[in-house]
Write a structure and sequence with these properties.
205 residues, mainly alpha, two-stranded antiparallel sheet
């Protein structure tokens, strides 16, 4: 999410960096920087104003292109330092499938809270908890059946990850630009929890 309040705190010189031909900022940030500078009374020559408009337009066209699988996973991902930091969809999927839906749910709930979407956070949390309880009940009832090289547990985690992605698709603001947040901390916490669980499982044998 590109915040005008954040960009408005920058100095004129910092804002001018947004307008350079080699600017790596997203189109919305460039447009905001341009508008803020004009509001502050900075004059642009017709040629310079046209160049900046062309820069914004070219960035918009590039951002609207969807040509890779990465774009489909995280189409609003940006390197803009003013954008909000969120866990990427690929990371949420990875945590859900590898460590369990509950852990992917925690990351998705964090994202919704970060963009002040309590409804999305609540629905994700209710889904994740309900799915986790149902999954545990099912696995305890019939066991972890294997289908070739795939276990039922893995298949259920994948299905739960798909459910989280559907919630995200329906409820997450499509125009929100975000940077990829480091997943080091949740990864360390998740591995630690699993190690504790494994320790107690083996200590009871």
């Amino acid at each position: 999410m590109v915040s005008k309040k954040v960009i408005a705190k920058l100095s004129d010189r910092e804002l001018e960096n947004y307008l350079k031909p080699d600017s790596r900022f997203v189109s919305k940030s460039v447009c905001l920087a341009f508008d803020i500078l004009k509001e502050r009374g900075k004059a642009f020559s017709p040629a310079e104003a046209e160049r900046i408009q062309q820069l914004i337009q070219s960035k918009e066209e590039a951002e609207n292109e969807s040509v890779t699988m990465d774009d489909k996973w995280d189409k609003n991902l940006t390197e803009d330092q003013t954008a909000i930091e969120l866990y990427s969809n690929k990371v949420i999927w990875f945590f859900s499938v590898v460590f369990g839906v509950l852990f992917g749910t925690a990351l998705q709930v964090f994202n919704f809270f970060k963009v002040n979407d309590r409804k999305g956070a609540t629905i994700s949390l209710l889904f994740g908890l309900s799915y986790f309880v149902g999954q545990i009940y099912l696995l305890n009832y019939i066991g972890d059946v294997r289908y070739g090289k795939m276990s039922l547990r893995f298949l259920l985690d994948g299905l739960g990850a798909f459910g989280l992605s559907l919630i995200r698709e329906q409820m997450f603001q499509s125009e929100t630009q975000y940077r990829a947040k480091s997943f080091t901390v949740p990864l360390v916490i998740t591995i630690s929890i699993h190690l504790v669980i494994i320790y107690f499982m083996f200590s009871e044998l």
